[in-house]
TrEMBL record:
This is Sigma-54-dependent transcriptional regulator. PANTHER family: SIGMA L-DEPENDENT TRANSCRIPTIONAL REGULATOR YQIR-RELATED, TRANSCRIPTIONAL REGULATORY PROTEIN. InterPro entries: AAA+_ATPase (IPR003593), AAA_lid_NorR (IPR058031), CheY-like_superfamily (IPR011006), P-loop_NTPase (IPR027417), Sig_transdc_resp-reg_receiver (IPR001789), Sigma_54_int (IPR002078), Sigma_54_int_dom_ATP-bd_2 (IPR025943), Sigma_54_int_dom_CS (IPR025944). The modification 4-aspartylphosphate is found at D54. Pfam families: AAA_lid_14, Response_reg, Sigma54_activat. Transmembrane segments: none annotated. Residues 5-119 form the Response regulatory domain. Residues 146-375 form the Sigma-54 factor interaction domain. Keywords: ATP-binding, DNA-binding, Nucleotide-binding, Phosphoprotein, Transcription, Transcription regulation. SMART domains: AAA, REC. It comes from Belliella kenyensis.
Length: 449
């Protein structure tokens, strides 16, 4: 961490040395002493973090030096130290933007020490806020946070655009590791609810007996150990978005209670009688087929229709073509940056190995594979030998269901068409079939582009 640079402008050499010595006791401070305003101004290009100014300097009044410092960089805090106890001058300077006004006496060095601490803490908070704002903007501008250019992902972008314009509930489906929570956050942080809370709850991670109190909260004395009122996730997300991940894991009894809350737009905390009105957007996610869960009696049909809203299905990574390489590059760049190592590239053989793997763990697996490869790589190049996969599955199995030959043919063509990002000519070349055959399948609605 760079030292906190302090400029002291004091024409009294003895008093200046006292302040210099006192502040230099902190090893994190880099203290520079100047006897004239001109000498200080000539060094402002060194970007001090703080300037202390004697009000009565021989070559320039302290208020004038303050104005010149602020004109150079308005972010530099200035502390004025004066031998005059003139309240009107102090008030005037503080209104003008001086960070502190100190009167010269025996306590000045200690007051200055405390003032520097406060100013430094305030600057750190401002920097943290700026960094968080920047990260938030980068993280949730969805075309940057959801990385890829494939045709299947472009469709997802279109649905997200529709979702952020209204408060309709959203149901996100897709295999584990496809980025369902990332999509949920993208919707929230680009919607009118972005200034309120985004609250994520993984239903699979909460014990069955605790789900109700976790979601709806509880009153003091509701059960043993309930020593005070606790608001639930619904209230925590008030005005914002509640993301219920793995919604299919919720048991039927809790499903009925959730349905009532969604219908009435109000809840009652466990052990209480007071109704709490709700203003919450619901986004749900699951890797299961909810329609099949309804057919099998594992999920309530009425709740299914209540939460369905706008459905967004996330494509598995194996169906996103060269998005695999785009994501791999993104993850390896992030890894290099966070670990302060040189940028890393992939050899062509390594790229081919990535493209030929099915990634059953999807994006989450790709990230793990790439980060491990970055560690194993020699110098700044990831070779084929550096890539280790965590699954023995090599190809997408297109034949798990019993279908006709024609249906299997359509599935194969659809798979490769998506992998080639809708490029009919390239798909025809790979499968060694005529492009007119593919166009006919598209025209007859057997496959989509």
């Amino acid at each position: 961490m760079a030292p906190f640079k302090i400029f002291i402008v004091e024409d009294d050499p003895w008093y200046g040395q006292i302040l210099h010595y006192h502040l230099s006791l902190n090893p994190d401070y880099e203290v520079c002493l100047f006897e004239t305003a001109k000498a200080c101004l000539l060094k402002l290009h060194e970007q001090p973090d703080l300037v202390t100014v004697d009000f009565s300097l021989p070559d320039m009044a302290g208020d004038k030096l303050f104005e010149k410092v602020k004109a150079f960089d308005p972010r530099i805090p200035v502390v004025v130290i004066s031998s005059q106890e003139d309240i009107s001058v102090a008030v005037s300077l503080l209104k003008a933007g001086v960070s502190d006004y100190l009167v010269k006496d025996e306590a000045t060095k200690d007051l200055l020490w405390n003032s520097v601490i406060k100013i430094r803490e305030n600057q750190s908070l401002k920097k943290e806020v700026e960094i968080l704002k920047e990260e938030l903007g980068q993280k949730f501008f969805f075309e940057k946070s959801i990385i890829g250019k494939s045709a299947s992902l472009t469709k997802v972008f279109g649905l997200i655009e529709k979702a952020i314009k209204t408060n309709i509930n959203v149901s996100i489906t897709g295999e584990t590791g496809t980025g369902k929570e990332v999509v949920a956050k993208a919707i929230h942080y680009n919607s009118e609810r972005k200034k309120k809370n985004f609250v994520a709850v993984n239903m699979a991670a909460i014990p069955k007996d605790l789900v109700e109190s976790e979601l709806f909260g509880y009153e003091k004395g509701a059960f043993t150990g309930a020593l005070a009122r606790k608001i639930g996730k619904f209230e925590e997300a008030s005005g914002g978005t509640l993301f219920l991940d793995e919604i299919a894991e919720m048991d039927l009894n809790m499903q009925s209670k959730l349905l009532r809350v969604l219908q009435e737009r109000e809840l009652t905390r466990v052990g209480g009688n007071e109704s709490v009105k709700l203003d919450v957007r619901i986004i749900t996610a699951t890797h299961k087929n909810l329609a099949e869960e309804v057919k099998n009696g594992h999920f309530r049909e009425d709740l299914f229709f209540r939460i369905m809203g706008l459905p967004i299905e996330l494509p598995p990574l194996r169906d996103r073509g060269t998005d695999i390489l785009i994501l791999a590059k993104h993850f390896v760049d992030e890894f290099a940056k966070s670990n302060k190592i040189p940028s890393i590239e992939f050899t062509q053989d390594a790229k081919s190995k990535l493209m030929n793997y099915a990634f059953p763990g999807n994006i989450r697996e790709l990230k793990a594979v790439v980060e491990l490869a970055a560690v194993m790589a020699d110098e700044s190049v990831i070779e084929e030998k550096d890539l280790s996969f965590f699954s023995t599955q090599k190809e997408k199995n297109l034949f798990l269901e019993e279908k006709t030959l024609r249906q299997h043919t359509c599935d194969i063509v659809q798979h490769y068409l998506e992998k080639k990002q809708g490029d009919v000519l390239e798909t025809a070349k790979v499968l060694d079939i005529g492009k007119s055959t593919i166009y006919k399948m598209i025209q007859e609605g057997e496959i989509k582009i």
